[in-house]
Amino acid sequence: MRALVVIDVQNDFCPGGALAVEGGDKIVAPINALMAEFDAVVLTQDWHPAGHSSFASQHAGKAPFEMVEMDYGPQVLWPDHCIQGSDGADFHPGLDTTRADLIIRKGFRPAIDSYSAFFENDHATPTGLEGYLRTRGISELVMVGLALDFCVGFSAVDAAKLGFELTVRQDLCRAIDLDGSLAVAKTNMQDAGVTLR
Ligand code: VGL
Ligand code: ZN
User: Fold this and answer.
1) Which atom of ligand 1 is nearest to the CA of 149?
2) Which helix (H) or strand (E) holds 24?
3) Nearest CA to ligand 1 atom 2
4) DSSP string spanning 62-110?
5) DSSP 8-class letter at 168
6) Is 177 helix (H, G, I), strand (E, B) or coil?
7) Hey, which of 5, 6, 19, 21 would you mutate to test ligand 1's pocket, going by the most ligand atoms within 8 Å of its Cβ?
8) Amino acid 54: pLDDT
9) Cα gap 15→88, rounded to integer Å
């Protein structure tokens, strides 16, 4: 069984959004077209409470895209984005959400960020997605979405480490590319055995 996993195709990651990724809206129509080829479609949604600890606004003297050290390790500080219930947290209006079997939300704990769809940024707290996929007999994943160097990259590495057969369709992703983060993400994916297509 094969699943298409669509990472964070939300208004805040598209042009005009709070953490806009260039060309983020360009991948929506081809992702919709791909959905029919899969046994299952899973969407993820970045879903932060207001005042989330990953927001630069919560750290005195810090600006977006600076780093801080959290108890779980280094963390990039972001502009406020994907606040639960806001328009920015909604899926892009063009995304075919009716085809989704599961929508998994992440980043909802105030004190910890979650880039990966499988584990929060402590690399230990599970989101539940692994159990869902395994109990449905799904072993192969194709991953697409935003952003390639953060949530797609971390999700793909975790999935490969968990033993799923992983392909990332780079043409159906867009990257933030912060200080070489795209090159790092690609290396990490290749090292984990992810097929970059
Ligand atoms: C993401 C930064 C912060 C992503 C989410 O979806 O790649 N990036 N939150
Ligand atoms: Zn986020």
Assistant:
1) 7
2) none
3) 150
4) --TT-EEEETTEEEE-B-S--BTTSGGGSBPTTS-GGG-SEEEEE--ST
5) E
6) coil
7) 19
8) 98
9) 11
Q: Hey, is 112 helix, strand or coil? A: coil
Amino acid (1-letter code) at residue 52: H
Tokens of 164: 């799923």
| Triad 78, 158, 2: Cα angle to 5° | 115
Paired with 122 in beta bridges are none
Active site residue 62: no
Tens digits of per-residue pLDDT, 120-172?
999 999 999 999 999 999 999 999 999 999 999 999 999 999 999 999 999 99
* 105: its two tokens: 């939300």
Nearest Cα to 33, choosing from 85, 105, 120, 96? 96
CA angle 32, 37, 104 (to 5 degrees): 60
In the annotation, is 106 catalytic? yes
Nearest to 128 by CA among 15, 44, 36: 44
Tell me, in angstroms, the distance from the centre of ligand 1 to residue 1's CA.
28
Q: What element of type H or E holds 156? A: helix 153-161
Cα(163)–Cα(182) distance, integer angstroms: 23
Cross-strand partners of 151? none
Q: What is the pLDDT of residues 33-78, one digit of tens each?
A: 999 999 999 999 999 999 999 999 999 999 999 999 999 999 999 9
